[in-house]
Design brief:
Layout (H helix, E strand, L loop, with lengths): L10 E5 L3 H13 L4 E5 L13 H5 L3 E4 L6 H11 L5 E4 L5 H10 L4 E7 L3 H6 L8 E8 L2 H13 L3 E4 L2 H10 L1 H14 L9 H13 L3 H10 L3 H19 L1
Helix pairs in contact: 3-4, 7-8, 8-9, 8-10
Length: 249
C-alpha cells in the first residue's frame, strides 16, 4: 500500500456484527489499539464512533466481511461498490471453496485474503485470552508477497499459528472435524441430554464441545449447505450410529 516494508493500516472496517463480528472487534482493539475500527451492522444505527454507514466502513484500508455465509456474496458486492482500489478485503467465512470463488468472481484485481480462524469467542474465553497456538488457516490471497509475509509475521508474533492449505482441503477437513462436532452437539441438544452432578471427565469434555457450538444453529445449516463435503460426513456418521445401535440389539 505504501512502502513495501511498512504498509500503512489506519482503518479497518468490519461488516456484520453477530457473535463473530463482535469477537473480531474485541480482538482487533486488543492487538491493534492504534487502528480505527469502523463497524457496519444493519441492526445498529451509525454513531460515528463504533458504528458507521456501509460506505464509510467499506472505504477502510482493510475490510473484514463477517456476514452469514448465505448473504456473503450480497455483502461482498455491496462493499466492493465503495471500497478504494487499495483496500484489502478479508474473507473469514467458515467455508472456503464457496467464498474463494466469490472473491475471484467479484474482486477483479482488488486485493483480498481468504482465511478461517479456527477459534471463536468460546475458546478465547476458555483460554482466558491466551491465543498462543490458535490456528488461522489461509486458503487463498491476491496480495503482493511482501504484504502477505508482513501480515503473516505480525500475526505469528502475537502467537497465532498460520497454516496454509487449499480451499478444497480446508473444506474436506472441516467437514470431518468442526461440522462433525456441530452435528454431534446438535444431536445431544435435540435429545435433551445435560450435565449432572456425577459427570465423568469424558462426559464433561463432551458437554464442553456441545456448549461451544450450541449458539451456532444458523452457521451449522449454512456450513452444511455451502460445504460440499458435509452431506457425506452426515450420512457416514448416521449409518455408523445405526450399526452401533444394531450391534447392541
Amino acid at each position: 500500500m505504501h512502502s513495501s516494508q511498512n504498509i500503512m493500516i489506519n482503518t479497518v472496517g468490519i461488516i456484520g456484527y453477530g457473535n463473530f463480528g463482535k469477537f473480531l472487534h474485541e480482538l482487533g482493539q486488543r492487538f491493534f489499539p492504534q487502528i480505527e475500527f469502523r463497524v457496519h451492522s444493519r441492526r445498529s444505527e451509525p454513531d460515528g464512533e463504533t458504528f458507521f454507514d456501509l460506505k464509510t466502513a467499506a472505504q477502510s484500508d482493510i475490510v473484514i466481511i463477517s456476514a452469514g455465509i448465505a448473504e456473503y456474496e450480497e455483502r461482498m458486492v455491496a462493499v466492493l461498490e465503495h471500497a478504494f482500489a487499495e483496500t484489502i478485503l478479508i474473507d473469514v467465512a467458515t467455508v472456503k471453496k464457496h467464498t474463494s470463488e466469490l472473491c475471484h468472481k467479484h474482486c477483479g484485481g482488488k486485493k483480498f485474503i481468504s482465511i478461517h480462524p479456527m477459534f471463536g469467542p468460546e475458546s478465547y474465553k476458555k483460554y482466558r485470552g491466551d491465543v498462543s497456538g490458535f490456528r488461522i488457516v489461509v486458503t487463498d490471497y491476491a496480495l503482493k508477497n511482501d504484504t502477505y509475509q508482513m501480515l503473516k509475521a505480525q500475526f505469528a508474533a502475537f502467537g497465532f499459528n498460520i497454516i496454509e492449505m487449499s480451499a478444497d482441503e480446508h473444506d474436506k477437513r472441516l467437514a470431518e472435524t468442526l461440522f462433525l462436532t456441530h452435528y454431534i452437539g446438535r444431536s445431544i441438544i435435540e435429545a435433551g441430554f445435560s450435565r449432572t452432578d456425577i459427570d465423568t471427565l469424558s462426559f464433561q469434555f463432551l458437554m464442553d464441545a456441545v456448549e461451544s457450538v450450541k449458539d451456532d444453529e444458523d452457521l451449522f445449516a449454512d456450513v452444511y449447505h455451502f460445504n460440499p463435503y458435509c452431506k457425506a460426513v452426515a450420512e457416514r456418521f448416521h449409518s455408523a450410529q445405526e450399526k452401533v445401535y444394531q450391534r447392541l440389539q
